[in-house]
UniProtKB/TrEMBL annotation:
Organism of origin: Centaurea solstitialis (yellow star-thistle)
Pathway: Purine metabolism; IMP biosynthesis via de novo pathway; 5-amino-1-(5-phospho-D-ribosyl)imidazole from N(2)-formyl-N(1)-(5-phospho-D-ribosyl)glycinamide: step 2/2
Entry keyword annotation includes Ligase: yes
The name this protein goes by in its record: phosphoribosylformylglycinamidine cyclo-ligase
Classification of source organism: Eukaryota, Viridiplantae, Streptophyta, Embryophyta, Tracheophyta
Domain PurM-like C-terminal: 223-380
């Protein structure tokens, strides 16, 4: 029995479903018992984006910012450093490097937390942040073709505000419903000496299942396969360190209207991450690879699903870019390459499919875009 870790999610590949559920649940419960009272333990294993959240909170956004094009690195998140860390770790643990690695079920459980929290505190929008948490876990799980089974959450705060916590948990429940998975349990911790009043931390853990013969791993991807983009709702849950720098530079507040639109900047930025579970699992026949477009954008995420020697050719203007990204780029004077490496740019998930399967997927009625093709070249290029 093995499980595959994808970000903050765990995909279980087993022959005996009953044993998987029992062992996975015991693994999660035992980990929570050992670590839930000590936040530093849950932060011991976290994504590059989570590290960025720490840096973001420590930044002084009131400082004078020179009028030059912004980058994600200047905002406190170094994608290159994160990639280098993964490369070094991969030497010690060869299974790491893609969206996840394989390890025995009894190994420690990984937890993630959402970098969007700072804006939730500032906007007062708390009822969708739980959807983001679930989405970031289950969307990683389905990249292997697995179905999410259950989810557990961890909520920590300075002093428990029951009304606020209820809103947060409602989002988690909504996310689980959208994912067709069970909210198996969770834990709440009050830590008055650790958090500022009114702030909280949120983490989660998802387990999914897939038959060995049904695992989607990208090994059969070949030149000429089609890249299909599934639309995002906006920024989703990555890039917020840079977003907050752009906001500070723009002179606008979260209550101001997104230029040219009827919604506020806060509403646009807090739009919950799309959960792609049902869209992908109900029509995954013929899908050879799936890339969840998170931190690193197209540039870093699409190549992770390809065999060596293959790359992506993206068709420019083949999908609509949401207005929020156009505002971010203009207000921050951000270069095209930086935007493509930091944000999803309107595509939250990329499917790699044969030409025949692509025609079926594109004609099924769900919104999807033919955004490119697989070519004999490394990396991502645009035409």
């Amino acid at each position: 029995m093995v499980v595959e870790v994808r970000g903050g999610a765990v995909v279980v590949v087993v022959e005996d479903v009953k044993m998987m559920v029992v062992e996975a649940y015991n693994c999660v419960v035992n980990y929570n018992k050992n670590n839930s009272k000590d936040l530093s333990a849950s932060l011991g294993i976290m994504s590059t984006t989570a590290v960025g959240a720490n840096l973001e909170i420590s930044n002084n956004l009131g400082e004078t910012i020179e009028q030059e094009g912004l980058t994600y690195k200047e905002a406190g998140v170094d994608i290159d450093a994160g990639s280098e860390l993964v490369r070094r770790i991969a030497k010690m643990a060869p299974g790491i490097g893609g969206f996840g690695g394989l390890f025995p079920l009894g190994m420690p459980v990984q937890m993630v937390w959402v970098t969007k929290l700072k804006l939730a505190f500032e906007t007062g929008i708390h009822d969708t942040i739980g959807i983001d948490l679930v989405a970031m876990s289950v969307n990683d799980i389905i990249t292997s073709g697995a179905k999410p089974l259950f989810f557990l959450d961890y909520y920590a705060t300075s002093h428990l505000d029951v009304d606020l916590a209820e809103k947060v948990i409602k989002g988690i429940v909504d996310g689980c419903r959208q994912s067709d998975c069970a909210l198996l349990g969770g834990e709440t911790a009050e830590m008055p000496d650790f958090y500022a009043n009114g702030e909280y931390d949120l983490s989660g853990f998802a387990v999914g299942i897939v038959k060995k013969e049904s695992v989607i791993n990208g090994k059969n991807i070949s030149v000429g396969d089609v890249l299909i983009g599934l639309p995002s709702s906006g920024v989703h849950s990555n890039g917020f360190s840079l977003v907050r720098r752009v906001l500070a530079r723009s002179g606008l507040s979260l209550k101001d209207k997104l230029p040219g639109e009827s919604i506020t900047l806060g509403e646009a930025l807090m739009a919950p991450t799309v959960i792609y579970v049902k869209q992908i699992l109900f029509g995954k026949g013929g899908i050879k690879g799936i890339a969840h477009i998170t931190g690193g954008g197209f540039t870093d995420n699409i190549p992770r699903v390809f065999p060596k020697g293959l790359g992506a050719l993206i068709y420019k203007d083949s999908w609509p870019v949401p207005p929020v990204f156009k505002w971010i780029q203009k207000a921050g004077m951000i270069e095209d390459a930086e935007m493509k490496r930091t944000f999803n740019m309107g595509v939250g998930m990329v499917l790699v499919a044969s030409k025949e399967a692509a025609e079926r997927i594109l004609n099924e009625g769900e919104t999807a875009y033919r955004i490119g093709e697989v070519i004999s070249s490394d990396g991502v290029s645009y035409r």
